[in-house]
Amino acid sequence: MSVRVSAMSVLPPVRRDRIIAQLPQYFKKEAALHTKDDFNNKVRTACQEQRTGTVGFKISKVIVVGDLAVGKTCLINRFCKDAFDKNYKATIGVDFEMERFEVLGVPFSLQLWDTAGQERFKCIASTYYRGAQVVIIAFDVNDVASLGHVRQWLEDALKENDPTAVQLFLVGTKKDLSSPAQYSRIEQDALKLAQEMRAEYWAVSSLTGENVKEFFFRVASLAFETNVLAELEKSGSRQIGDVVRINSTSNKLYATSKKKHPNCCQ
Ligand SMILES: Nc1nc2c(ncn2[C@@H]2O[C@H](COP(=O)(O)OP(=O)(O)OP(=O)(O)O)[C@@H](O)[C@H]2O)c(=O)[nH]1
Ligand SMILES: [Mg+2]
């Protein structure tokens, strides 16, 4: 009897409530990263044919930033532990949680970095911003000032990352505390800002759980889709290179490399 041990087999199976088979929809059409109904066709096919390369082993880094006490820790705890603490305990520096998903049959993990909003811990927290694929900026829908500080959080997060490669989300928290009229006033400003920043907008409540799971499923799905598309592009260009190599004589290869690097030592 042979025993196969792989990296995946030593991990516990993905929780049944972390399985994503359909693309979760955006919250607001006017501020969505994209408005398609379903996963990209190429992505679906690649998953069916198990051509997703390293994506199944990939862990995407997600950072959650925003003013102190807007509810970043509560948001992560509601999703990861289905828990809510009404007492405020400031995050000191950073904390992180791992969440494993299965998207279109492929394992996919998010590393959720919960950062400190307090000014005195910002310096430590910002050293963890680097390498984020997803940036979530949280503000409290009952606190206009926290929305006003979003641009600064964005600037700080993008200093450490490639702005063209980051997927951005703007999340209004504590929706349970605002009346519909109050909420709709701040939502107008938040939507405008999200459009300017090219972020996807969501409003959630960690107290009631409203939209929390939907939001993280959307984050996981869009991050996954982007990773598979990048992987397909990479393997596409690798194939082109392979064809050139097989069909070329060694002389031609030498000639090509000389042309590419005319100043190289020979
Ligand atoms: N009513 C209500 N209260 C919330 C909600 N989310 C968070 N809170 C409360 O807001 C306070 C701050 O929440 P935290 O999650 O600790 O805030 P934080 O953004 O992590 O704060 P820092 O770690 O200091 O940056 C706590 O007292 C929470 O109970 C929510 O959805 N509804
Ligand atoms: Mg916190």
UniProtKB/TrEMBL annotation:
InterPro entries attached to this UniProt entry: P-loop_NTPase (IPR027417), Rab (IPR050227), Small_GTP-bd (IPR005225), Small_GTPase (IPR001806)
Signal sequence coordinates: none
Cellular component GO terms held in the UniProt record: centriole; cilium; Golgi apparatus; phagocytic vesicle membrane
Pfam families given in the database record: Ras
Source taxon at top rank: Eukaryota
Protein transport listed as a keyword: yes
Protein name: Ras-related protein Rab-34
Source organism (scientific name): Seriola lalandi dorsalis
